[in-house]
Amino acid sequence: MSERLRVEKEVLSVFQKVNPSTYHLENQSEFDYRSSLRKRLFQDYLKFPIRMFKGAKLLDFGCGTGEHAIYYSVFGAKCTLVEMNPDAIQRARDIWKSYAPANAKYQFINSSYFEVDLPDKYDIVCTEGSIHHTTAKEDAFDKLVSYLKTGGFVYLNLASKAGFFQRNLQRMILYKYADSEQDIVKYAMDFFAENIERSHQFGHRTKEAIIYDNYVNPKWDCPSVGEIMRWFKKNNLVFYSSWPNIIPLNFGDSPYTGTFTELMMKEGIAAIPQLFWMCHQQDDNLSSECFYDMTQKIESTLEAALNCVKDVEPSKSIDLDAFSQKFTELKQAATSMKDLYSNEIILLNCFIEEVLAMLRILKHNGPEKMAEFLKNTRHLFRGTNGLGGTYFIAYKPEPRR
């Protein structure tokens, strides 16, 4: 208990200096921009229609300044928002006053979510970028879903162990060389300026907020996908969706077989995607370009082969020679897929070599040598610098009759 309270106090102290979740929603253009991001996240990526929020009772643990949660209210949810930082709550109240619908129902509760005691159950419970800052993330999740109604949904956004791997390496470097909070800020800008600039550009947070959130913040305890699946199983929840997608490519049973949810709960189901989250570097729209020529060729040959038998009738004869020819062409086209992930494996191997070199420098050399090394890495701390956030939705099923 004392350890939990100590960490809460230290995290709160950092967040009261520089709040990590401020996105300047005072500007209508920024509010509208982030609204479009929220809709895209839920509808396009998590396959959770916005209408699911309309009229729903929603509980948010760790709402911060409310700059994500305000959209739940805009989408029609009745919100209960728990946050331990009173300064953040004050900003959240101002945002709600500006943007919540005139008839919106909501309440803010200034409390640690370990201490809060609520009388209600909720249709949707959620936590975003919060429970990985505690000493007891599983306990926090258990507490959150204890308020979930049967048939309700839990939305979970947090950093994963693999996706946050590179940022944890950065934290390790900074804590090796820094003797003070000021040193952390200085070395972060010296060592990781590219990552900070990119995060500022795409996330619209200040560089100071990014540094305090990622590096000064004393607690980032990130779970693996396997841990999250165990949390779901322990609380009798069923996996619904995630982003990035963790469903293996070769899964394709009919939904009537009833095996999907059991398969998704198996240990290690997401080991392969997590491997690539760890060294993620290039935006998907860029890295996918190398697949276009290959997939277009496969698509046309596949379509031609399938067309040979797309409409079989008793009175129709099939040109078996043409059928054979088209499938021979399909086989040849498909061989190009054997190296589909060769670039990723090469990147992974190079990435691991750079990690090992970094560790040797960290062990034997000072910050000047580290700075020189980091300027010349090709994979480590480049581009997206791993994968900062992962998103999951699960639901609490009705009892079987």
Mind sketching the topology for me?
Elements (H helix, E strand, L loop, with lengths): L1 H16 L10 H18 L11 E5 L8 H5 L3 E6 L2 H14 L6 E5 L11 E7 L8 H9 L2 E11 L6 H13 L3 H11 L1 H11 L3 H10 L8 H10 L3 E6 L16 H5 L6 H8 L5 H4 L1 H19 L12 H15 L7 H23 L2 H9 L14 E6 L6
Parallel strand pairs: 1-2, 1-4, 2-3, 4-5
Antiparallel strand pairs: 5-7, 6-7
Total domain modules: 3
**CATH top level class name of the largest domain:** Alpha Beta
Give me the CATH fold name of the largest domain: Rossmann fold
Kindly report the average pLDDT value. 91
Low-confidence region ranges: none
Q: Judging from the principal axes of the Cα atoms, what is the shape?
A: globular
Oligomer: single chain
Order of strands, main sheet, comes to: 3-2-1-4-5-7-6
Q: In CATH, what is the homologous superfamily of the largest domain?
A: Vaccinia Virus protein VP39
> What is the number of helices?
17
The helix-and-strand class reads alpha/beta
CATH architecture call of the largest domain: 3-Layer(aba) Sandwich
Radius of gyration: 24 Å
